[in-house]
Specification:
The protein is mainly alpha-helical. The protein contains 14 helices and two strands. It is globular and about 50 Å long.
Length: about 350
């Protein structure tokens, strides 16, 4: 009878989710995921989402996951892949500063993740010629960000000019994190760009009406993924004592700490990509309790080939996100440091 009850419980509550995940298991999962990611790099040095979409964004995200392992353009297991990713994104740099293709319907994501990755490479680049090239591309990329910002202080899927000043929270957060990465790397970032973006996020929080951050300044209720990203964005901007942070953390704790829930708000991986950054910066018991639950789920969902599946964007996207989360404790990249 007891054996039957145990088997029934295991069927309802899988051991992979509720048992302690070992450091060895996490390390093995990371290694297999990174190997899979490296194997999917194109001969030109990039990665893409489903349907060959979003090459700049996917290359930036995948490149960041490889950098977090400790590899650079010259050292480490994935140095060849990192070098090729840098070459790919530098080749995508346009005269106007955009890293990507203006025909892409969401090119600001690609631009943001592209300059975020390149900004993290710059600090470890030893070749003077390549450093100068990176500094030039990143400086023009920052200039593009400023010109692409809308009147309200946010960013849309395309520049303000191309998108008739449409803006929304998630692309705004991508740009702010990328700009902070550039500033950390020594690239000049005008303060007014960041100040306008912070005010935009504040307005999205005020207009949500429920303690979270709305999709954009027009309201419509808080969205947990964007709310988590907003906190990470404020932290990246140095706004640790921002008056909105305590309520936003409370809102996200309410909506995101149930790790098994991914049906009520969607974009589960995106939400925890940013919420993990927030919790890691908080540190202590908050991070340890959250980490334990989150890592269990991520490790349990890894595929037999080392990747994680996700239907509407693709495995490169999901694998890059999960590997970034699993490697936060390595503290290799300045953008994620406490």
């Amino acid at each position: 009878m007891r054996t039957t009850i145990i088997l029934l419980l295991l069927a309802v509550f899988p051991a992979s989710v509720y048992s302690q995940v070992s450091d060895e298991s996490v390390s093995r999962t990371i290694e297999r995921g990174l190997d899979w990611l490296a194997s999917k790099q194109s001969s030109r040095g990039g990665w893409t989402a489903n349907g060959e979409a979003y090459p700049s964004a996917m290359t930036g995200m995948a490149g960041i996951a490889l950098l977090m392992e400790g590899s650079t353009t010259t050292q480490g297991k994935y140095a060849p892949q990192v070098r090729k990713a840098v070459d790919f994104l530098l080749a995508k740099a346009r005269p106007n500063g955009l890293i990507g293709d203006s025909r892409d319907d969401r090119y600001t994501y690609g631009h943001g993740f592209g300059i975020l990755f390149l900004s993290q490479v710059l600090g470890e680049e030893e070749d003077n010629v390549r450093r100068d090239e990176l500094i030039d591309v990143l400086s023009r990329g920052v200039d593009f960000c400023g010109k692409a910002q809308t009147r309200e202080g946010g960013w849309g899927y395309v520049s303000a000019k191309d998108g008739n000043n449409f803006d929304e929270g998630s692309t705004t957060i991508t740009q702010v994190q990328a700009l902070r990465g550039c500033r950390n790397a020594g690239i000049a970032v005008p303060k007014e760009i960041i100040d306008k973006a912070i005010k935009y996020i504040h307005r999205c929080a005020i207009n949500s009406g429920d303690g979270g951050v709305a999709y954009n300044i027009h309201g419509g209720g808080g969205r947990p993924p964007i709310s988590a990203a907003a906190i990470a964005c404020l932290f990246n901007a140095g706004e640790y004592d921002d008056k909105f942070v305590p309520n936003l953390i409370k809102y996200c704790n309410k909506n995101l700490l149930d790790i098994g829930n991914n049906n009520d708000y969607g974009h589960w991986h995106y939400a925890h990509y940013y919420f993990a950054q927030v919790k890691y910066r908080q540190g202590g018991k908050d991070w340890e309790d959250y980490r334990k639950k989150l890592f269990k789920r991520i490790v349990s969902e890894a595929g037999s080939d080392g990747s994680w599946s996700q239907a509407y964007v693709g495995n490169v996207y999901t694998t890059s996100i999960n590997l970034t989360i699993l490697q936060l404790d390595k503290a290799t990249l300045p953008i994620y440091l406490k």
